[in-house]
């Protein structure tokens, strides 16, 4: 039977639509067990949806037959929630494991815990019970490498030993990561979000969300983050969560056999991924909705929210950091902000926009270079080189030596009384009696000035190294590095404004703004605003970004500064180019992604885009009752289109349907094997009744069963903006073009994307897949 | 010119599609100033979108011509943000004004402030500076009516005086409200959300969002809420915010002249409305997304969020309650919840679902009765009767006498040390030294038992009266009454569980759960969970409900109980009927609303739905070059379809386009007046070239300009689920049905809705409009 066997078709370079449709008389037959799409092809959303409706209809009608069937139908209805629960549990657990492992291995670069080598610095000192809030290096159980090997931590020798061991560990971790990726799961590299966006829009990449990718990505993510590279775990966590989603899809045929339904689960999994990455379930759902998902029905919204919550609570129950905080960077500020502060906030927004532009341009240029030159042939070497340079440059500066999330955490923090950080080294003014827990509006001490220099150097270092890091062949996210860039810049600006307001408190602006003796400026808030601006500039997230930040601070108080910075950053960055980093990478890779956010505003018509163009050979069509088996086989052999329109006759060119190449091949093969009298000169007919044939002609072959009688058509005068809209909203793969009922041509998704690229003065050949 | 003059067409009972299309050669002409849609018709989303793209294209190309044009293009690009800002400011201000007025007028029913009669009870006592946390009635400036008139508040006489004045004020307020609504703005009645949902889906109701409606709805909302009826201001506030949105749309031709763009603004305005109603901006955006909006592009998400935030901050800046709280019911609980408590929470969810079902069925039955019987002819009498009954029954019970939001606020509250409420009358156990600010796990005092009885009576009263109140001809929301029902039930359950855990602390379940001496149960949390469950049962909101509740409590801690209750309530209610109250009212009114959430799962085909059916006269069509002016005029006169397909010839039936009735009428009228030689027997042609005519025939009339060359077509074999999907996602008004290029029939939105109603065993005639 057609569709029951998976053939080994060679992937075709040029495709001409395929597999649309609602084979109404085909529905009673079982669907093939394997997915019906080729690798690197796009699914037909309408078809998937209609298949699911059929499945649902069958279950509903069966459920009335017996109690067992009724129970089965209930199980089917609940399977969505079960999958969400499992995704939440697994991705929460994996996030906790990753956190614990990263914590331990990051500290391993500096030293080891004597009481138990599997303890991180914090756990080691925490269990030793001797120091609590004291200095980091005063915990006796924790020994730096120099202490362990040379017995002391002072002097150039000890420093050099620590320095070289730091570099060696970093190189070891990253080389292990790149080898694992290369050998076991090449898809585990990168952030994964561009590919997930494309997959969610209906593209098939086999194995991208497979078990191996899940395993290797989890392991190598730990290694990559621990190696001290300028990358984060947030993007890859979304990939990991989507792999979990895909894994649990295979438990239920409802999801494993329907690519459309599977994508609903993956959307929710993406939400769970962001939820555990930041501890922000609502932000995660909005991220999935705004940034990642293509088709997001409201049912999915509710389930995504469920998955995101379960994931967040699982992570909190495991409690990897021992502080039972849900969010990654929990902050609490005590000072309100003032209207005048909006000026530096907006300036930070401008900085974020510029950084976003610089990063996207630089990173894409570098990635293109990697793709096109010799560079791309030695990924392991590249990873080692980047790791080496990062480690060499990072170690001397205390702000780059530690893990990036710790750095961000410190930069976000308000200086409290218990804070021992260099950044909080303010000179105490003995003349003023101030509450102990706030220190702004005091002159900065030498520590703050040292910190400023170190932060400035760290900023330059992070800006440059991140451009070269994102895209190397290990898992790498850019949320954390982007936020770090913004947080450093923000903190510097914050301290500057704070010191200005202290030293020039007689200026008219500060006079109105700061009452003497009261707090004015919270440098930590500037760091947070800067982080939001830079993240916004790179990803062009808006609502989800603000909501994630809102969940981090837990109050609506600071949402206006965050919004002001996010919106400025987006506008500035958009002025230089509409694409966020993910869209830029999608385009670089030539994925067939039809962005919902792009507006198509050109005045072209369907007739300008359809194939065949003027001068090209006519469209390959079948006739409803005047083609022989031989002719069909020749057509299949000579062309590599994915499907063929069926017309009444070549003269009238009146369209009656569309038939898939795959179905045609299988049907003829089956008929030749099983059906008597089917020979090369047998007539093929797609009509209900066999055609009138001479008496001596062989038995005709009826193929109406595989004919899609409802192909999608537009007229040749349809504006392309409508066609693009139809492709986007209905998720079509191809569309036939007619004029007064006559078939003129065909438009595939690839044609649409190429036309859009052309209209934007980009290379239409950059679209690689259909 | 066609389209420049608005004709007085009589509304037609039966319509046959109209006004689709992209008149490509028509675009250079100015669009008519008045909206091009009739009242009670549905817009064509594709057409609106394409019109906006054209407008945008024109502005972009002009902006390169001069500096002034460039500035104009910038203004145009910014106008969206300006509109959002204005909406936020105005709806925030209106919400504050409504709050203040309601506060004053509600108190006016009980007494008056001697120092300034325009002060509410709270303001009066607050300014008198004599009492702060003391009993409500101990403020000397505030006098109850009996005190003012008789000099004392004790005794039956005083009680009766207060009672009758309470009723008189209530009757006065509600009669004023109903008269204002009847005389000035009949659309100001009801909650408005069903109509706004329909309007956002593309329906036109002239004046529903007009200035008069805005004014009268604001005033009458205050009167209605103050009259003590069992209704809330939340739904009407959404209507008020949408009126603001519509008002500001008229400032910018971008929005006022494009019904599609206007709906983007209205979606954002709805978010702003919920934002000020609850002080929950994120919840507001999600409410708009989940519940109200039909077409919600991501650009709108960001703008909605902006509008919602501006509105919330405006409200907070005005600070009507003097407590600078953003949220309506701010609560803070100090006790965690225990897993075992999920059982009562889920029971509350079941209660919520049952209440939702009871309410929807009862209310719809009553509203249908009102529509079909004499009852509907005396709306003012009905309002007076309901007000009278409410006031008579409400006054004796302290929990129904006060305003419903105050009641909910008290029920949500945790009993603190300063709480003087009857609900917190617990017996202090002298043997235990407990912190002062928590009281659970003490035996209930007599006050609590009295309160329980009164609450039980209030619950029964609220359940019954709300069913009859929602739908009377004054502004009435049901969020607050629904929440009140749930909060009362929840508090009762909460107190019961609490007392059980106190009196039976040796039961195994309580033993594991409550450590002796520690708090166990927070009855306020039960009230909140109950409120969420009941609101969910009535409206079927899910994510937005949980997020609104999350914003009220400000912590993720209690999200699991809320989710458990919300999801249970939705499942229970869905088991009795899929429709929420808003969808039920939409259906009752016969609005053409194609719900995005409904799944169409039947196996019908386009051919089963299209007109003409078997036996009906053939479809009224025009031919491209063989119709005379006379024929066209006769066709327009004889039929009342909104448009006509144009075919090559009646024999071939090959479709070439679609022409609107309106355009046809105007074009012929204009031609007859202005164009020489056009007489009744002139040929009308839709082709580029005039047809070959005999030499003596009059000059033909070319109408290609008004022909839509890209009508939407499907084949007769297309499954209806696909057709429904296309109508939903593309926002079509009609779709032509073809088979092998031949025109067979037409499907309008009304046909689709009628078919869906029929498939669900509902009366297809209930769909009134197209």
UniProtKB/TrEMBL annotation, chains A, B:
Similarity section: Belongs to the chloride channel (TC 2.A.49) family.
Organism the protein comes from: Paramormyrops kingsleyae
Transmembrane residue ranges: 78-102, 159-185, 205-225, 237-253, 265-289, 338-360, 380-399, 451-471, 478-497, 525-550
Domain CBS: 610-674, 707-765
The name this protein goes by in its record: Chloride channel protein
Membrane topology: Multi-pass membrane protein
Annotated Gene Ontology cellular component terms: early endosome; endosome membrane; Golgi apparatus; plasma membrane; synaptic vesicle
UniProt subcellular location: Endosome membrane; Membrane
InterPro entries per UniProt: CBS_dom (IPR000644), CBS_dom_sf (IPR046342), Cl-channel_core (IPR014743), Cl_channel-4 (IPR002246), ClC (IPR001807)
Alphabetical list of CDD domains matching this protein: CBS_pair_voltage-gated_CLC_euk_bac (cd04591), ClC_3_like (cd03684)
Keywords attached to this entry: Antiport, ATP-binding, CBS domain, Chloride, Endosome, Ion transport, Membrane, Nucleotide-binding, Repeat, Transmembrane, Transmembrane helix, Transport
Pfam families (UniProt xref): CBS, Voltage_CLC
Molecular function via GO: antiporter activity; ATP binding; voltage-gated chloride channel activity
């Amino acid at each position: 039977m057609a569709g029951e066997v998976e053939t080994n078709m060679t992937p075709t370079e040029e495709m001409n639509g395929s597999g649309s449709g609602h084979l109404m008389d085909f529905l009673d037959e079982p669907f093939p067990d394997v997915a019906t799409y080729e690798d690197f092809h796009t699914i037909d959303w309408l078809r998937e949806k209609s298949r699911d409706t059929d499945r649902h209809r069958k279950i509903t009608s069966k459920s009335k037959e017996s109690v067992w069937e009724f129970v089965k139908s209930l199980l089917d209805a609940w399977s969505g929630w079960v999958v969400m629960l499992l995704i939440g549990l697994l991705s929460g657990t994996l996030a906790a494991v990753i956190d614990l492992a990263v914590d331990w291995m990051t500290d391993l670069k500096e030293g080891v815990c004597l009481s138990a080598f599997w303890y991180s610095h914090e756990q080691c000192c925490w269990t030793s019970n001797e120091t609590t809030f004291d200095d980091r290096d005063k915990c006796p159980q924790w020994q730096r490498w120099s202490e362990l090997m040379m017995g002391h931590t002072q002097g150039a020798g000890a420093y050099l030993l620590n320095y070289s061991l730091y570099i060696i560990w970093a190189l070891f971790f990253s080389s292990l990561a790149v080898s694992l990726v290369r050998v076991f799961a090449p898809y585990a590299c990168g952030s994964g979000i561009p590919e997930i966006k494309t997959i969610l829009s209906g593209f098939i990449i086999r194995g991208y969300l497979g078990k191996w990718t899940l395993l290797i990505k989890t392991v190598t993510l730990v290694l990559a983050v621990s190696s001290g590279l300028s990358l984060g775990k947030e993007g890859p966590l979304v990939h990991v969560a989507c792999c979990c989603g895909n894994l649990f899809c295979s438990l239920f045929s409802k999801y494993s056999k329907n690519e459309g339904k599977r994508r609903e689960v993956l959307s929710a999994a993406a939400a769970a991924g962001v939820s555990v990455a930041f501890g922000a379930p609502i932000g995660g759902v909005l991220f999935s909705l705004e940034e990642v998902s293509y088709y997001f029905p409201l049912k999915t919204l509710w389930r995504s929210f469920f998955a995101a919550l379960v994931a967040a609570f699982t992570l909190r129950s495991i409690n990897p950091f021992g502080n039972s905080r849900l969010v990654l960077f929990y902050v609490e500020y005590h000072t309100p902000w003032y209207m005048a502060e909006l000026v530096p906030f907006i300036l930070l927004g401008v900085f974020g926009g510029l950084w976003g532009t610089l990063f996207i341009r630089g990173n894409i240029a570098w990635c293109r270079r990697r793709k096109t030159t010799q560079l791309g042939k030695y990924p392991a070497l590249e990873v080692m080189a980047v790791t080496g340079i990062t480690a060499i440059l990072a170690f001397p500066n205390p702000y780059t030596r530690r893990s990036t999330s710790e750095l961000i955490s410190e930069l976000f923090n308000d200086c409290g009384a218990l804070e021992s950080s260099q950044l909080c080294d303010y000179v105490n003014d003995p003349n003023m009696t101030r509450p102990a827990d706030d220190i702004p509006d005091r002159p900065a001490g030498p520590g703050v000035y040292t910190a400023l220099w170190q932060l400035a150097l760290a900023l330059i270092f992070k800006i440059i190294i991140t451009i070269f890091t994102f895209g190397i062949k290990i898992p790498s996210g850019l949320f954390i590095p982007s936020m770090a860039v913004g947080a450093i810049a923000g903190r510097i600006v914050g301290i500057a404004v704070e010191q200005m307001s202290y030293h020039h408190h007689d200026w008219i602006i500060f006079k109105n703004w700061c009452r003497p003796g009261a707090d004015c400026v919270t440098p930590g808030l500037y760091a947070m605003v800067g982080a939001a601006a830079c993240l916004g500039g790179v990803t062009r997230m808006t609502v989800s970004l603000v909501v994630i930040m809102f969940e981090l601070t837990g109050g609506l108080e600071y949402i206006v500064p965050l919004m002001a910075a996010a919106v400025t950053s987006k506008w500035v960055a958009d002025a230089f180019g509409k694409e966020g980093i993910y869209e830029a990478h999608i385009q670089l890779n030539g994925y067939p992604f039809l962005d919902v956010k792009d507006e198509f505003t050109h005045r072209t018509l369907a007739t300008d885009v359809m194939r065949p163009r003027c001068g090209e050979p006519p469209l390959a069509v079948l006739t409803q009752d005047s083609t022989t088996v031989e002719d069909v086989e020749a057509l299949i052999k000579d062309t590599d289109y994915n499907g063929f329109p069926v017309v009444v006759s070549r003269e009238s060119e009146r369209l009656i349907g569309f038939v898939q190449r795959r179905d045609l091949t299988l049907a003829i093969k089956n008929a030749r094997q099983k059906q008597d009298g089917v020979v090369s000169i047998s007539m093929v007919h797609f009509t209900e009744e066999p055609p009138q044939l001479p008496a001596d002609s062989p038995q005709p072959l009826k193929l109406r069963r595989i004919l899609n009688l409802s192909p999608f058509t537009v007229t040749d005068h349809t504006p392309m903006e409508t066609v693009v809209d139809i492709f986007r909203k209905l998720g079509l793969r191809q569309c036939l073009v007619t004029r007064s009922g006559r078939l003129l041509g065909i438009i595939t998704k690839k044609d649409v994307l190429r036309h859009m690229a052309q209209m934007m003065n980009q290379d239409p050949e950059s679209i690689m897949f259909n």
